[in-house]
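Long-time lurker, first post. I've been practising inverse folding by hand and with some scripts of my own, and I keep getting stuck on stretches where the structure tokens seem ambiguous. Below is the full token string for one chain I'm working on. Before anyone asks, I'm not after the true native sequence, just a reasonable design that respects the backbone. If someone could post their per-position residues I'd love to compare against what I wrote down in my notebook.
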């Protein structure tokens, strides 16, 4: 028996009809949930494809406190291999996808380009590729993996020369994002994550934070003539490897920064204390922030960027977005990197899990739960929430995949294995 076989279309339809009735009993329209889940763009990160290496070939650089571990064969070694792999991944995913590029992933076949002097030309071939794939692009300045980032500080560096280099890179990244937005005729989210921090007890914690705020103000200055189509986001975190004691851009820092500058706040599921509910932050920020960017990731014991699964944390995050009717105020992106398993599989598992968690949230009878709560029927509400966990969302997910014309169930695994033999194993 082939365990990776697809269930038959008719059995998927049959199970779906029965699931549809079960959900309808609680006022949930499963067809509408599928449509919403399919139409919501998820911005896939480019950096799982090659373990966050990029295409600049810079020697002697540090990682910026993030680390991809593992040595599974088949890493994409250049831009052609990266695109080939991403195309394979896209074939296996249901729904609207975008791609999140880092500045270090430019097409530098026309020559190397320093980051402070970066222009849109290394991204012309990406824009063409994306158009051919029917997807749109997002962007990230790369404030790490560079000799001028090796001592742990970039935009908050005490040396004005180093700081200026990174300010110029930030401005350059906005120009690239604006270019991408123009050619694709839609917004381009430009996410600024800065690794700056210290291993141990800096005597001055304020100075770098003041410098980071001032440097970001220069990067984000509208005087640079950036169109509204470049949606700048800022991403905080708790710590990095080698920056265990002090991170300049913490979550508090950026919540204040984004709010006061009217920028988008990025919430990464791996960037908080493990016992904190990241989902609960959604409704804490929504009364103040117009929109949020969500990086789905999965921390295990630390910010380990494991492949996203349908965990309680991810489900609850989307539940909170849906309960708050805020899906149109949330940009969704992925952020994980695992070099210990087939990378195509990593992408498909993590991206499918993100969309599946969104679907599950859309299937929650949240209107009914809110109504019961308003009537003071809290035991009834709790019981319904518990019951909803066991409703047949898997049958709705299978229907979603069928409707999207992509492999259903685990049948995509056979595709991954075929690709591994025909493509990945030829990379030594
Ligand atoms: C790092 C941040 C950031 C990066 C990418 C590569 O902790 O999460 O988003 O993972 O920019
Ligand atoms: Zn992130």
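-- Answer (accepted) --
I ran through it position by position. Result:
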């Amino acid at each position: 028996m082939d365990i990776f076989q697809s269930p038959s279309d008719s059995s998927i339809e049959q199970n779906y009809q029965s699931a549809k009735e079960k959900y309808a009993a609680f006022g949930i329209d499963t067809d509408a949930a599928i449509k919403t889940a399919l139409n919501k763009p998820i911005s896939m990160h480019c950096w799982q494809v090659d373990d966050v290496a990029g295409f600049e070939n810079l020697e002697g650089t540090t990682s910026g406190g993030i680390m991809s571990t593992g040595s599974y064969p088949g890493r994409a070694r250049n831009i052609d291999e990266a695109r080939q792999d991403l195309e394979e991944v896209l074939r296996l995913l249901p729904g609207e996808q975008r791609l999140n590029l880092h500045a270090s992933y430019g097409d530098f076949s026309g020559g190397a380009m320093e980051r402070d002097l970066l222009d849109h030309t290394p991204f012309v071939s990406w824009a063409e590729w994306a158009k051919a794939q029917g997807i749109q692009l997002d962007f990230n300045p790369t404030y790490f993996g560079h000799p001028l980032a090796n001592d742990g500080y970039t935009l908050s560096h005490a040396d004005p020369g180093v700081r200026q280099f990174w300010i110029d890179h930030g401005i350059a990244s906005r120009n690239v994002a604006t270019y991408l937005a123009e050619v694709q005729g839609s917004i381009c989210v430009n996410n600024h994550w800065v690794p700056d921090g210290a291993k141990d007890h800096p005597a001055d914690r304020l100075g770098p934070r003041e410098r980071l705020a001032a440097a970001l103000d220069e990067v984000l200055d509208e005087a640079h003539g950036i169109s509204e189509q470049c949606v700048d986001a800022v991403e905080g975190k708790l710590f990095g490897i080698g920056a265990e004691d002090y991170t300049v851009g913490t979550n508090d820092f950026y919540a204040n920064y984004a709010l006061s500058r009217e920028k988008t706040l990025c919430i990464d599921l791996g960037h908080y204390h493990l016992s904190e509910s990241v989902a609960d932050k959604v409704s804490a920020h929504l009364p103040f922030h117009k929109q949020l960017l969500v990086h789905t990731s999965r921390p295990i014991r630390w910010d380990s960027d494991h492949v996203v699964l349908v965990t309680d944390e991810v489900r609850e995050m989307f539940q909170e977005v849906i309960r708050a009717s805020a899906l149109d105020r949330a940009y969704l992106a992925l952020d994980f990197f695992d070099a210990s398993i087939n990378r195509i599989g990593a992408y498909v598992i993590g991206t499918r899990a993100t969309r599946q968690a969104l679907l599950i949230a859309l299937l929650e009878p949240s209107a009914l739960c809110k109504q019961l709560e308003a009537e003071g029927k809290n035991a009834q509400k709790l019981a319904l929430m518990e019951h909803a966990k066991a409703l047949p969302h898997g049958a709705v997910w299978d229907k979603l995949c069928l409707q999207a014309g992509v492999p259903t169930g685990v049948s995509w695994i056979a595709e991954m294995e075929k690709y591994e033999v025909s493509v990945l194993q030829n990379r030594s």
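A couple of notes from the structure itself: The chain has a mean pLDDT of 97. The CA atoms of residues 227 and 376 lie 49 Å apart. Happy to go over any region you disagree with.
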